[in-house]
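#structure-requests
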Amino acid sequence: MLAAGRLFAVVLFSFQYFWRRRSLLAKPLVREASIGSVILENPFYGLRKPKLQTGSNLHNVTDIFVKGGCLAMEAIVLFHFCEREGYGPLGVTGISMGGHMASVAACVWPKPVALIPCLSWTTASCVFTQGVMSGAIPWDLLENQVFSDCFYRGELRNILSDLKDDAAFVAGKHFVTEYASKESSRYVNGSFQSRLEAGFSRLSSKDREAHAAALHFMRGIMDEFTHLGGFSRPVDSSTIIVVVAKDDGYVLREGIVDLKEIWQHAEVRYVDAGHISAFLFKQSVFRQAIVDAFRRITTKYYAHLQ
């Protein structure tokens, strides 16, 4: 929603329909801080999910990357729309995966923007290979897919053999660019990424060393697509406020590049909660971070509106 006569506008990323974002973020923001909202539902979720998809269970790993590309493009369109209609300053926010998508959107916008990612960090790779979500991936199904194709079976074994953790991580990043060009048709239809994951289950069953190498290899692939260090930096990182949970078991931060290393002037706020409890009970903290980020960008770039 964009309230008539309001100057501020924030794009909210929503995963499943709109009522929660509208009730807990959008309505309080317009009432308390005169910040209007455009709520964008993510591809593959809610009304935008494929007919055969159940809930938020994506069919292909590549759907994650397609979703990210779509959201970045759609956010740019919405930013242009808001500017054309006279709204500003502009901001973007989201929670969990939505927070990461908001960060990507800010990276591709060539102007200062208030960015407030909540319950996300610098990469999505740890969510699928180390966090709680890693146990929800159907590894058995993916294993059967990859071992039905001799090409991937052979390539993965050659790459993962005798690799240390760091080397496996780098190999995963290089594998994306090198083999995607060779097998573009496989990559586009989603089987490429699925079959990569499937190989890890079988290959890692030999011993702990192989298991660690496989996980780092997968992390390298995910990092190549999702790590914020691989995107252009937002124009002004001083208008970024990140809210993270101290005890987040989904989005891990230990061993991950610190966000301050990428966006030097961003502020990181911590809430004493886990991922789910923060989502349920810390909405007021998220709203305050949004308001504060808009105050900063207004003071710095829109002082004539005050």
